[in-house]
Amino acid sequence: MDTTCGDHLTFSTPAKRWVEALPLGNGSIGAMVFGDPWDERIALNEASLWSGSPRNEQEGAVPSYIARPAIAEARKAVLERRFDDATAAVQQVQSRYSQTYAPLGDLRLCIRPAGEVSHGEVSGYSRSLDIERGIHTINYTIEGEQVKWATCASYPDGVLQLRIDSTTPLDIRAEMASQLVAEPCDINAHTSQLVATFRAPSDLPPPHEPHVPITWSDMPGDAMRVAVVVGITHDGVEETPADSGKSNLVVRGVHHLTLVLATTTTFVDPKTLPGADVMPAVNAAQALVDSALARGAQSVLTRHVEDHTRLYNRVRLQLPDTPLHATLFDYGRYLLIAGSRGGFAPMNLQGIWNEDLRPPWSSNYTVNINLQMNYFGVYTAGLAEMAAPLHNLVSAIASAGQDTAQRLYGASGWVAHHNSDIWAYSSPVGMGSASPQWAFWPMGGVWLALSFAEHVRHGCDDVQQFAREQAFPVLRGAMAFALDWVFYVDGVATTAPSTSPENTFQANDGTYAVGRSSTMDLALISELGHALLEIATVAGTEEDEIVIATRDKLLPSIPRIVPGRDGLIPEWADDDPQAEPQHRHISHLFGLYPGTTLCEPDQREAASASLDDRGDDSTGWSIIWKLAARARLRDTAAVDRLLKLVFRPADCPDDGGQRCDQRGGLYPNLFSAHPPFQIDGNLGYVAAVAECLVQSHDGVITLLPALPTSWPAGSVTGLVARPGVRVDISWSCGTLDYATLAPLANCERGELVVQLGSVKLTVALNRGAKVRLSHIDFE
DSSP per residue over 382-416, as a string? Predict the structure, then answer.
């Protein structure tokens, strides 16, 4: 990136690599705009375009007569410390793998001066993404003649719109290219319209299964179909009329062109086989294109900007000394708005932007940290609506996971494991031979359910209805599984076989991943139990049998986490030596962040020592998790150190040092690197920054709890603290100037405790009122 000025990311040259292109999105369409004035590529995705169907998990399901004895043997082997046998036993429970988020293809634009075969010289080139308004612009001149582009992905109109205005006439050719299989169909294309249809793979294995080929079945229900419709209006001359199956559009002598693109798949819902007839998708996309063109380019743009800014301007962060730190925070909020909208799928490992047919980790939903991190900051950043796609997916997994819980474990409730996909995959992955460190973990549902509790804790208007109709059923089902999964040894709640994603320990002269009572297991179940009791109170379901069993039996039996070997938080109850002390996951510190179980002084000291032991440097999302955890500890020196790692270039130096696949940073377009690109680092950064500025997880609203020295002065407006309080803060010289607190909407919050430093105040936050506090109030 050449410059960043407030809400603009600006470059002086077109993108050459995908990680230099700039993202647009409306929750359904994901577009990466390269900005080439002559041979433009706009890489496209559609949020529901995944490989396979519900059949993929069904066909690989492990039957109960194999799974249940295997789990029993694994448990017995763990308790007897026969870890080789435990590993072999849980591998018998492994199914195949989740399906893959597939790229749609590229919209290609060949642009030349009218009547010319070659292009001329471009000067004064710039391309810019305005993240406040959600508009990508390109400006340049051709031999003194000005050309302007403006592109947006509109949620209100459901389309990608490109407007080109030129003072010199241009010849423009538009066509679609895709790695998917072209799907022939009888299309009656409108005038000035391009229609393309494709079929996704019926099975698309992850890169770590290279021996398994991609399959392209055309059997009904095996794979999804997708339609792309491109329509244009212009003041030039169309070379040939559109006809059935037309694959490109050519117009000549254009000064003003509006291009509108819509795309729709045959996805219905996670339980339903995708439609084999692509025509309903074609008709739906054509209707969107026709409506947008009839509305007009300016109206579409105006409606888009109004919708986007309504969400984006809820929160504003100013950091005069480190403006890029504020821009990355705003960029994360921009990506949430662009990538996660009501009615569409939640963001996966790459959000809704992926260019590879066989992307890293299938660009799937990895639910042992990554999917959750995507939504860590959604409530604090005032974007509660953006969590709806996550809740819809988790509800679908909760439904599908009931069969998995019963079949594999003989348990009630529902279960999810390490990976999922748009079909609500809930089984263990690994194909019977993978390491359990990443292929066996039945706590995925427990963690996913907690997002529903956060909605209630941060909400206002709909909390009772949401708690009763959505949150309680999901939390109850996850806890029903946990109650059946946990067993008791001398009255102590125990889990086995138990993994700690994605770590290992040393024992019996070997390295293993399957042990007894991982700290993360116990912390997750404890968090879920307390969340269930809380939500039951709101929903009026305190006498439910699962609630009673949780309150009276399970929670009192969960052991307190105590410092172990070398004063660190142990990864498992037996506290065997770590096999990889600098592992990227900090699963054993879930109770510190985002959880709340590691809250006592000795636990916090051990958690801090554990972070020291892990080290700062790692993958992008790991650095962000550590940043949020250090903020929770109010360790400002560590926050400063970690921020430096966040903002380094992602391209790995070839110096023989750190593994390049474990080195986080930022790509030129500010995408976060695992590497490769994973959006969890961008979205998790929003939560980590908010955690530095306001915390409310412990029933107290704490102002500036972890303000780094690199942010000596600044202001933020619109952050949301529990229990639904808008917080504005201004500070200078590292000290609070003032803070304003107001209830969300028109709610009565009563008395709240507010803390600055070590001083606490009790304030009354009445309906429609605001409370303003300065540093003097805390003296």
Answer: T-GGGGHHHHHHHHHHHHHHHHHHHHHH--SS---
Q: Phi and psi dihedrals of 147, rounded to 5? A: -130, 135
Q: State the pLDDT confidence band at 769, using cuts at 50, 70 and 90.
A: confident
Q: What are phi and psi of 427, to 5 degrees?
A: -85, 160
The mean pLDDT value for 574-591 works out to 96
pLDDT band at 243 (very low <50, low <70, confident <90, very high): very low
**Cis peptide leading into residue 207 (ω within 30°):** no
d(CA 329, CA 325): 7
Q: Write down the number of H helices and E strands in the chain.
A: 19, 32
At residue 87's C-alpha, the angle toward residues 81 and 93, to 5°, is 130
Q: What is the C-alpha to C-alpha distance for residues 15 and 34, in angstroms, rounded to an integer? A: 5
- Calculate the CA 665 to chain-centre distance: 17
Read off the pLDDT of residues 274-322 as tens digits, 9 standing for 90 and up: 999 999 999 999 999 999 999 999 999 999 999 999 999 999 999 999 9
Residue 761 has pLDDT above 70, yes or no: yes
Mean pLDDT of the chain, nearest integer: 95
HEC assignment per residue over 338-390: HHCCCCCCCCECCECCCCCCCCHHHHCEECCCHHHHHCCCCCCCCCHHHHHHH
- The mean per-residue pLDDT over the stretch 448-474 comes to 92
- 5 has pLDDT over 90: no
What's the rounded Cα separation, in Å, for the pair 561 and 573?
9
Euclidean distance between CA atoms 746 and 157, whole angstroms: 31
pTM here? 0.97
Nearest CA-CA partner of 174 in 196, 153, 157: 196
**Dist CA 428 CA 434 (whole Å):** 10
What residue spans define the domains of the chain? 3-50+101-315, 55-99+325-692, 703-778
Query: 746 pLDDT exceeds 70?
Result: no
CATH number of 3-50+101-315: 2.70.98.50
Residues 543-562: what's their mean pLDDT? 98
Find, among 261, 236, 225, 240, the residue nearest to 108 by Cα. Answer: 261
- DSSP of 685-723, one letter per residue? HHHHHHHHHEE-TTSSEEESTT--TT-SSEEEEEEEETT
Token pair belonging to 2: 């050449």
The helix or strand, by DSSP H or E, that contains position 588, with its residue range, turns out to be none
Tell me which of 132-136, 607-611, 651-655, 707-711 is least confident: 651-655
Q: What is the pLDDT of residue 659?
A: 64
- Between CA 716 and CA 710 the distance in angstroms is 15
User: What residue ranges in 143-215 does DSSP mark as E strands?
Assistant: 145-154, 159-177, 181-182, 193-199
pLDDT value of position 244? 45
* Distance (Å, whole) CA 515 – CA 505: 9
Report the range out of 181-190, 454-463, 491-500 with the highest average pLDDT.
Answer: 491-500
Q: Which string of DSSP letters, residue by residue, matches 255-320?
A: EEEEEEEEEEES---TTSPPPS--HHHHHHHHHHHHHHHHH-HHHHHHHHHHHHHHHHTT-EEE-T
129: enclosing H helix or E strand: strand 122-130
- Find the mean pLDDT for residues 422-447: 97
Q: Which pLDDT belongs to residue 462? A: 80
**Fold classified for 703-778:** Immunoglobulin-like (2.60.40)
- Distance from the Cα of residue 584 to its chain's centroid: 18
- For residues 583 and 579, what is the distance between their CA atoms, to the nearest angstrom? 9
Which residues, including other chains, have CB under 8 Å from residue 375's CB and lie 6 or more apart? 340, 346, 386, 387, 390, 451, 683
Give whole-number Cα distances, 100 to 228, 732, 752, in Å: 20, 48, 46
Report the CATH fold assignment for 55-99+325-692: Glycosyltransferase (1.50.10)
Bridge pairing between strands 193-199 and 725-732 = unpaired
Segment 611-615 long-range contacts (CB within 8 Å, at least 24 positions apart): 611/586, 611/638, 613/566, 613/568, 613/581, 614/581, 614/582, 614/583, 614/586, 615/582
